[in-house]
Design brief:
Layout lengths: L8 H9 L9 H9 L1 H23 L5 H59 L6 H39 L1
The structure holds zinc ion.
Length: 169
């Protein structure tokens, strides 16, 4: 035990806080408190504290029925909003997965053209050939016009849609 502490102090405090002090407390404990400055001080403080707690309990307002009803409405609405937010998130994930899949499919469909282009540049030692690129791009649009437009639309539309959906939250 440190000086300034007493082994009986917790017992004394428990007795006071359970409203057993002094009438229902042990005679031994009462005798100790009478002779122990630490415990007698603890009792003084605890009794004062317990008294103010009782006052607080007595003055505490019991919420009226309309406030309880209003709070439960508020809670229900908040839960509904949270529940509504969950499917939106799931839809976003599915949309993103579809977009990635479509992008992959588009790339697969154009890969023949892409490989031909790579082969062309690899075989052309002089490097970048603007005329060849223009020819290749023209050929791409001629062969896969709708696909390229779809690809461009996906690249711009999907992020915009996701952004708008997220901004709405
Ligand atoms: Zn003591």
């Amino acid at each position: 035990m440190n000086p300034g502490e007493c082994q009986f102090e917790p017992d004394v405090l428990t007795a006071v806080l359970h409203s057993r002090w002094p009438a229902q407390a042990d005679a031994e404990l009462r005798a100790h408190v009478a002779s122990c400055p630490i415990c007698s001080e603890a009792v003084t403080v605890a009794v004062a504290l317990d008294g103010s707690l009782d006052e607080l309990r007595a003055s505490a307002e019991v919420p009226d029925a309309s406030r309880v009803w209003w709070q439960s409405q508020l809670r229900a609405r908040r839960e509904a909003v949270r529940a509504a937010g969950r499917p939106i998130t799931a839809v976003q994930v599915v949309a993103f997965a579809c977009a990635v899949g479509l992008l992959g499919a588009c790339f697969g469909a154009t890969s023949t053209w892409f490989q031909a282009l790579l082969k062309h540049f690899a075989s052309n030692a002089s490097g970048f050939d603007a005329a060849a690129l223009a020819t290749a791009v023209t050929a791409l649009f001629a062969e896969h016009g709708a696909l390229v437009l779809g690809l461009i639309a996906l690249v711009f539309v999907v992020p915009t849609a996701v952004y708008v959906a997220l901004a709405r939250d």
